[in-house]
Amino acid sequence: MGGGGGAHDPFDIFQSFFGGNPFGGGGSSRGRRQRRGEDVIHPLKVSLEDLYNGTSKKLSLSRNIICSKCKGKGSKSGASMKCSGCQGSGMKVSIRHLGPSMIQQMQHPCNDCKGTGETINDKDRCPQCKGEKVVQEKKVLEVNVEKGMQNGQKITFPGEADEAPDTVTGDIVFVLQQKDHPKFKRKGDDLFVEHTLTLTEALCGFQFILTHLDGRQLLIKTHPGEVVKPDQCKAINDEGMPMYQRPFMRGKLYIHFTVDFPDSLAPEQCKALEAVLPSRASVQLTDMELDECEETTLYDVNIEEEMRRKQAQAAQEAYEEDDDMHGGAQRVQCAQQ
């Protein structure tokens, strides 16, 4: 945490004893080693079509650049004075009392010089940057989103962040954020589509047109006599997402089928279906067996809601049982006393 607002250069000790830098230069090396500026992160929302086809987006950004008039000195003469607030170190140390005989030292950038360690005379300030050493610039960056890029992937523009004197300029980083698509879902290099069939289509065959992410029309159909079962999946090779940096290779397109059954059938429809569908399993029950059976009634139920309700009920009963046990123990203890 440091013990004062003085210098922290490792070569200052050599300067104190020998009057200079042991590696030459005749003085402190403070300021020679440039620090790196912070990277600027921007989220970039893209559609699934953008990631499938590739796209280019132009974005206008504002950033700080070193003042061209004073070359980043902040003054007309190029001179500056050591900050009196931090004695040129750029840092200040504050002491915080935590308790009796306990203190905490905290180091933070000097507010007077904004951590630079120097100040500029008001009359000598650069008229263009007002002594700030940097000015704002608007710049247009063209971001190329390549085919097959993933959600969360980064596109970096090296050295395009804010400039500052004696600082290595950081990068501008765009992070891709894929927007939800109403029809297609993506998992890696594969695409998934949900499609609902009528019972007639599932049993007798179907065909439909699927518009792909690049606008192509795909004809999806079954083979003659093929039956599609509920919750069945089928795949089409090479119709998934392009692979990043291998755009001519593609994943698979998966289609998940659900079958929409009719709510009810008329008696004549049942007879017509029985004539063409496989016959029902014949179970011969005698009148005596039927007389011994009890009639039951089936009703519709949402099994997920049913399970949640039972779990909540079991938790409530366990809580009440635990509460009764604690209360009973207290009453026995009181009776013994």
UniProtKB/TrEMBL annotation:
Entry keywords, A to Z: Metal-binding, Zinc, Zinc-finger
Region (Disordered): 312-337
One Pfam family recorded for the sequence: DnaJ_CXXCXGXG
PROSITE patterns listed in its UniProt record: ZF_CR (PS51188)
Organism superkingdom: Eukaryota
Domain CR-type: 54-138
Positions of CR-type zinc fingers: 54-138
Protein name per UniProt: CR-type domain-containing protein
Annotated organism of origin: Gossypium arboreum
